[in-house]
Design a protein that fits this description.
heterotrimer; A alpha+beta; B alpha/beta; C alpha+beta; A: alpha+beta; 7-stranded mixed β-sheet; 25 helices; about 25% strand; globular; B: alpha/beta; Rossmann fold; 9-stranded mixed β-sheet; two-stranded antiparallel ribbon
Chain lengths: ~725, ~230, ~80
Amino acid sequence: MTDTLSITPELVAEHGLTNEEYELILSVMGREPTITELGIFSVMWSEHCSYKSSKVWLKRLPTKAPWVIQGPGENAGVIDIGDGDAVIFKMESHNHPSYIEPYQGAATGVGGILRDVFTMGGRPIANLNALRFGSPDHPKTRHLVSGVVAGIGGYGNCVGVPTVAGECTFHPAYNGNILVNAMTVGLARKDRIFYSAAAGVGNPVVYVGSKTGRDGIHGATMASAEFTEDSEEKRPTVQVGDPFTEKLLIEACLELMAEDAIVAIQDMGAAGLTSSSVEMASKGGVGFELDLDRVPQREENMTPYEMMLSESQERMLMVLKPGSEAQAEAIFRKWDLDFAVIGRITDTGRLTLKHEGEIVGDIPVAPLVDKAPEYDRPWEPTPPAPALHPGDVPAPRSLGDALRTLMGCPDLASKRWIWEQYDHMVMADTVQRPGGDAAVVRVHGTTKGLALTTDCTPRYCKADPVEGGKQAVAEAWRNITATGAKPLAITDCMNFGNPERPIIMGQFAGAIQGMAEACTALEFPVISGNVSLYNETNGEAILPTPAIGGVGLLKDIDCMVTIALKTAGDWLYMVGESAGHLGQSLYLREVCGREDGPPPPVDLAIERRNGDFVRSAIENRQVVACHDLSDGGLLVAAAEMALAGDLGFDLDADWGSLPDHAALFGEDQGRYLVEVSEGEAFEAAARAAGVPVKRIGFVGGDTLNRGGERLISLAELREIHESWLPNYMENA
Amino acid sequence: MKSAVIVFPGSNCDRDLAVALEKVTGFRPIMVWHGEADFDKVDLIALPGGFSYGDYLRAGAMAARSPVMKEVVKRANRGVPVLGICNGFQVLTETGLLPGALMRNANLKFVCKDVWLKVERTDTIFTNRYARGQVIRIPVAHHDGNYFADADTIRRIEDNGQVAVRYCDADGSFSPASNPNGSIGNIAGIFNEAGNVLGMMPHPERLIEPALGGADGRGFFESVMQELVA
Amino acid sequence: MKAHVHVTLKTGVLDPQGKAIQHALAALGFDGVEDVRQGKFIELKLAETDAEKARASLDEMCRKLLANTVIENYTIDLVEE
């Protein structure tokens, strides 16, 4: 492509722009745009960059709390954890690239989210990832799991940031669109946070990192279009990650950030040089003049269009204080990274691009950003599912067999095969490793800890987006609480189908409503996030998946608990109440072969009351092990605690009129299973807090028992739980 | 006790190793950049884990040719204790200070987990705080930890008692299941002939306090400390 | 001139990657594959114009860096441009 191309309707359509959007471009420009300018508009106005379908809804999410330093709108959100420390975090999707090329797609997803965090001055200290794959029977699934896991590990292990938690589930709705959502958590000093707003007319604009090649051109528009069968043809546009360079970039940036040289900094993520320069200029209300001949290039004869749209990885854009170029350059040279002054800040408010002595682009920044289309798309609510009473769901022929089925099913089976491929211990601060409710990493050099989790139950969201949205937030809050930590804030990754369909837009709107209610009630604001739409293939949409990444604070890691049972003779208590809700439960799906009914309702007041009580009981050292009740219900949670602690139990509770299988497999919300040594003191504390607790059994032995009758031995349970994934992956 | 941690571009356990050395020995090590051809006189040189130069070409290959390694080899040959962990072990084999090579794990996957190790020698500067045959638990985290050497070399290593630690089961027995990467003879770490250079794949610096899940790794650092300060 | 260097595992050194490829080929229905050994191919562009000197220098490069002679063999091919 050259800059002398005239803009035809076909070219406009190829850029994913509607006729109306192109008319708007003409009115902003007052003339026909050059091809480079058209490319810039197309990526800036793509769904991925502009949030044009979702913005109107995202505004409804609560984003404030006294501990929030920076909410959505920057590279990542920032919270205050006391003592001058701040935590920076965000989750982001890399769904489409990971489906096309799983290793590189997942790897560059990790690289991108790491950059979002260290751009702001945070040293990355933990990675998490939420993965959704298609049915295990689908011919592509094994290859995708293998590639995605290797890619996440290949990148994260090399940069030396521990991958400490995540989730991985399977459902046929993801057969044509997997989800790869990566989250990074970073640590900074509160007074050393870096932002992206450019300032200071005349200040140098500096490019650092890797050279620019032709990779990923139009990645951002690809992530905003539905898949068709020929999408695999798009493979050449997938970017390749270089974790070694990223590691150097982290060290070089953090080294420079310790000096007083940076005015503003932004990573080059989706839409590369375009979105980084436009966002920096727009936030600072200034203009940028870039000399594209100075952009470090990996390939020959690159056009301005290609340079502006390239998504080559491991690159950053900075505005430096005048006179600090030499100091900055010395640091980047030491780390063997490219460093080039490619432009300066102007007072024109325009993005001006020069190439070979000519102006090849000249766009007013404010309208490029502010006039981006915003759609309030039509939506329709998901009709409520008919109620499903516990009595209408058959009991299993054998409780033990039902437990075997659940503990060995793809969603509940151990994910050890995955997390043992991730270095989850590097940095030597991982105090709670993968496999529990939340991972806990120590704040280096202190006794504080951060509890980290990702959660979402997409089948709930499909059946009832509002309750599902609530539940996703509530479960993240519960998982953090179950370690003893105080939940502080979340990041969200909103994965949905085609927003131009009212039912999908209704799922989005409903999930936002539910999340907003939960965030408010639990004081758990959204501080960063990302939206991934058009996750559908040939009209088949994914389950609505608002993945939640949560962060909580433990004042003292000495007060942390895990899910592992500790001591024979201790009591098991359930905190909260069971109504035996089996609608959308895993019991219903895995044992009865049905996916119906409404999801369990979330009573946020009860959720908060029960969680606050559990946290205080952990702080008071009354609770020695704790697990939240979620997928699979009470018996599955108890089984997971038994495996983690290598200790059996006997559940001898009587449920009154509630059928046993509904009590044991129901997925009612707001519940925890805890191990307690001093039962009476614990009950007294619960009474005082007005929280219902029920003694349901005791710890001991090497079998799992119900009312004295053996369900299964620990050894057999472990075999079932641990073997599914390795067998699936390795015995093709 | 003065120690140096060598930092290559792409090292990522350099801080962990320095923290462990300081916590256990009470002395903060100096950090030496790969480009430095000379550095202060020290009692111990430690090569950390990570992915030096991205582990591109072969794990440890390019780090082994960096300026600082010429000096490390020189000092090792003069008897200065050198400890290489994970990537550090790979670098040591690539320099020839230790025999053999570390190849891709037999199952081709990166592996991060706690493993059991049997301590084979306790009369060395790195292991004197352990009991002979003691079984300890320490994590591994690597993609290329599959120890290989030709049959003659293996025989020589075994005859000389150069094996420091071997992967084993919790009860100290050896089985294929206890070998996380396919290493010949379950070899997890070896000494040079003189005994002043130790390379090992497991990461003792990651388990030096109960908060991290155990303290079995302390012994390596305590041993050096005992030897050098006593 | 250009040089092509092939680095391969020595005979007798186990090659798990080669085995995995062979297994995958068999799974795809390519039954006749009796053995697979995976190696590296390195292309170098040299300023040197004298073939003999180039070969000598390449040999040194291989021994010093490109191959680990504990486990690997190498071959050098000079390619005229």
